[in-house]
Amino acid sequence: MLAAIIFFLSEKNYIADLSDNSVLDDFLSIFIQNSRNLNMKKALIIVDVQNDFCEGGALAVPEANEVIPYINLLMEENEYDQIVLTQDWHPSDHKSFASNNNRKVGESIILNGVPQFMWPDHCVQGTFGAEFHKDLNRDKVTHIIQKGKNTEIDSYSGFQDNNHFMKTGLDDFLKYHEIQLLEVVGLAMDYCVKFTCTDAVANGYITCLHFNGTKAVNVKPENGRDAIYEMIQKGVTILG
């Protein structure tokens, strides 16, 4: 059913056209309310809303700051059993940094058997860039997951590293608290958000992405669009 959603690329965003499918209209409008009626425990996962990914940061995502008021409103208007922040937390010698490989930003290498895009230095442990953005309301946050701490491998997903060798502890935390439904927001849609969402589905969670609570870095112009398609195909529900 979800595969029937068609996304159109406009100048600045994607628009879900559900007007020809009343079943999908109803599903998306009452999905969250039904989860409450079923006493389904839910968590909000806020991915990497850190200074380096926001305006003026070392790896700024276009229009990233626009999602922060939306995320704050979600926390204000909804009841979540858990609210979890993920945080990129790289050592300064991390192998995903172009500067540590004598490479240029934008090149790709094979790092421990998996493709690795070469990024500018970002979210280095203990730096301002790694801190959460000051405008993000953290009053209701219950847990923080740090990722990307292993020098040898990157970790886009909030659940595990890119090589699927080491877990972050997020799945254990959510299952301990009997969470069944995840709502996901944050940065960036085509990398850390996408992989967090698809891993959430793989770990058995009903997974929803708030489209208005995320932005794509779009290394290539089509990356954000392709990320939406991939998430839908893997069972992620896209909420406007």
Automatic annotation (TrEMBL):
<dbReference type="GO" id="GO:0019363">
    <property type="term" value="P:pyridine nucleotide biosynthetic process"/>
</dbReference>
<dbReference type="Pfam" id="PF00857">
    <property type="entry name" value="Isochorismatase"/>
</dbReference>
<comment type="similarity">
    <text>Belongs to the isochorismatase family.</text>
</comment>
<keyword id="KW-0378">Hydrolase</keyword>
<keyword id="KW-0662">Pyridine nucleotide biosynthesis</keyword>
<dbReference type="InterPro" id="IPR000868">
    <property type="entry name" value="Isochorismatase-like_dom"/>
</dbReference>
<dbReference type="InterPro" id="IPR052347">
    <property type="entry name" value="Isochorismatase_Nicotinamidase"/>
</dbReference>
<feature type="domain" description="Isochorismatase-like">
    <location>
        <begin position="43"/>
        <end position="237"/>
    </location>
</feature>
<comment type="pathway">
    <text>Cofactor biosynthesis; nicotinate biosynthesis; nicotinate from nicotinamide: step 1/1.</text>
</comment>
<dbReference type="GO" id="GO:0008936">
    <property type="term" value="F:nicotinamidase activity"/>
</dbReference>
<protein>
    <recommendedName>
        <fullName>Nicotinamidase</fullName>
        <ecNumber>3.5.1.19</ecNumber>
    </recommendedName>
</protein>
<dbReference type="InterPro" id="IPR036380">
    <property type="entry name" value="Isochorismatase-like_sf"/>
</dbReference>
<dbReference type="GO" id="GO:0046872">
    <property type="term" value="F:metal ion binding"/>
</dbReference>
<keyword id="KW-0479">Metal-binding</keyword>
